[in-house]
Amino acid sequence: MRLLEEKINTDGIVISENVLKVDSFLNHQIDPKLMNEIGKEFAELFAGEGITKILTIESSGIAPAVMAGLYLDVPVLFARKRKSLTLFEDLITATVHSFTKNETNEISISKKYINEDDRILIIDDFLANGQAASALARMVEEVNAQVVGIGIVIEKSFQDGAQILKDHGYRVESLARIASLTNGEVTFKHEKMEELV
Ligand code: G4P
């Protein structure tokens, strides 16, 4: 998605060979117009798939997921990382280990909001090692609902998450794919261009 790549080029900060800081538009401060375009793009990519609900994880997945939900006209459910005072119904839980942050979270969603008739689109802000998306997919499948696809705002293609998810048979659509963050520079991966060469 050209607009997103331009935003990453102008406002993203390469912190290390593994980490890109995008807290001016995605992870802390949020750019609503960009989120709107991102939501539209996800909705176009997954149009006609009969999606009934979007599932994401707090906190940075929520903004793009809500905009996609608006365009697909479906509700958006987010997995919680912390116990909620009001979330006391039957819960589906999963353990997610983040290699980037070196922390483990138990995430949960209420069984009330997902059932076997659901066709779920999972959305998240970053895809690194695929731990969060895999955990969300496991939770969906635990109630025999279907994972229709996984929409990612920024995929770090030099890490193995995308491949792991594809190997599991999931359709993964990433709006920006980063091939490397070496020498303080973002290099994007454009598969279609490569195929043409
Ligand atoms: P994984 O799920 O693909 O395995 O990713 P990983 O555990 O490595 O990432 C965990 C957290 O780190 C996620 O945020 C993810 O968005 C974030 N993250 C991973 N790589 C980068 C990066 O290069 N840049 C930035 N800015 N974030 C990255 P989180 O803990 O869920 O936080 P949040 O959603 O509350 O912001």
Q: What do these coordinates show?
A:
The two termini are 20 Å apart. This protein has one domain (2-196): Rossmann fold. By secondary structure, the chain is an alpha/beta fold. It is 30% helix and 30% strand. The protein has a six-stranded mixed sheet with strand order 4-3-7-8-9-10, sandwiched between helices. Strands 1-2 form a two-stranded antiparallel sheet. It has six helices and ten strands, in the order H-E-E-H-E-H-E-E-E-E-H-E-H-E-E-H. The chain is globular and about 50 Å long. The structure holds guanosine-5',3'-tetraphosphate. Guanosine-5',3'-tetraphosphate binds at residues 19-22, 27, 57, 59-61, 98-101, 125-132, 156, 161.
Task: List its salient traits.
Rossmann fold; alpha/beta; single chain; six-stranded mixed beta sheet; two-stranded antiparallel ribbon; about 200 residues; binds guanosine-5',3'-tetraphosphate
State the gist of this model.
The chain is α/β, with parallel strands linked by helices and about 200 residues long. The chain has helices spanning about 1-10, 30-45, 60-70, 130-140, 160-165, 190-195, and strands spanning about 15, 20, 55, 75-80, 90-100, 105-110, 120-125, 145-155, 170-180, 185-190. The protein has 6 helices and 10 strands.
Helices, strands, pairings?
Elements: H1 2-11, E1 13-14, E2 20-21, H2 32-45, E3 53-57, H3 62-72, E4 76-79, E5 91-98, E6 103-110, E7 119-127, H4 131-142, E8 146-156, H5 161-167, E9 172-180, E10 187-188, H6 191-196
Parallel strand pairs: 3-4, 3-7, 7-8, 8-9
Antiparallel strand pairs: 1-2, 5-6, 9-10
The structure holds guanosine-5',3'-tetraphosphate.
